Amino acid sequence: xxxxxxxxxxxxxxxxxxxxxxxxxxxxxxxxxxxxxxxxxxxxxxxxxxxxxxxxxxxxxxxxxxxxxxxxxxxxxxxxxxxxxxxxxxxxxxxxxxxxxxxxxxxxxxxxxxxxxxxxxxxxxxxxxxxxxxxxxxxxxxxxxxxxxxxxxxxxxxxxxxxxxxxxxxxxxxxxxxxxxxxxxxxxxxxxxxxxxxxxxxxxxxxxxxxxxxxxxxxxxxxxxxxxxxxxxxxxxxxxxxxxxxxxxxxxxxxxxxxxxxxxxxxxxxxxxxxxxxxxxxxxxxxxxxxxxxxxxxxxxxxxxx
Length: 306
What we know:
The chain is an alpha/beta fold. 37% of the residues lie in helices and 23% in strands. Strands 1, 4, 5, 6, 9, 10, 11, 12, 13 and 14 form a 10-stranded mixed sheet that branches. A 4-stranded mixed sheet has the order 3-2-7-8. Helix 8 packs antiparallel against helix 9. The longest helix has 16 residues. The protein is globular. The two termini are 33 Å apart.
């Protein structure tokens, strides 16, 4: 079983408008709502690829109820901790002449509620996969990812981490199976700028030396690079299309990569997993929302013909 963790789920309220005029009334040309958070996005794309998962995390209030209903409607199992106070956050995404995000902070999580979440980890067994994705709410300890992995250290669990800087550095001692920074995030970790695949490989290797098994680096228009646990480097080109949406593209890549490995688990095919991950990420970037199975299949055919 695959478990995804989203500690601060959200409803993304996307508003399309013309040129914004500050201090005046602005009217939208259209709106959409998307339910997610990084781990939830991974679960939704896994479902599109025929891979079941269980989404873990915290929800609160009427917005939390809406997130749970949406996941149920999408056919994704959830086992959230329901918080006593507050509401799951709403993020406002303004699509104007420029894109502007106003992200909510989310509800406070109390100590007993965090312990209730830890109790749910007891159901994770040898051979399962856990995907930790996204930032940490301010009310939780900054090392909560490390605490999660400590709880799982007595089991043979495949760990995937999509996080930035100190969050990612902190989990490397647990030897995660896969980490997935983008090239900007990888550069920030080592106080440098990364613009080429050669540079990405150099710093991805440093993450392996610090404990990561496989390192997948997404590079926007430059494609992606994977350093696998066998010491081999894989490169993948970029899907063709017009970018409509950057939200969830990295999460979709994680979902596609994991699904690609699971489909050939007896003899892991890292090349295929990289292609499926890149296709899933591109399918989301070129869509209004998260990737569909049809769009992913279209994009992987393009990549395999390069």
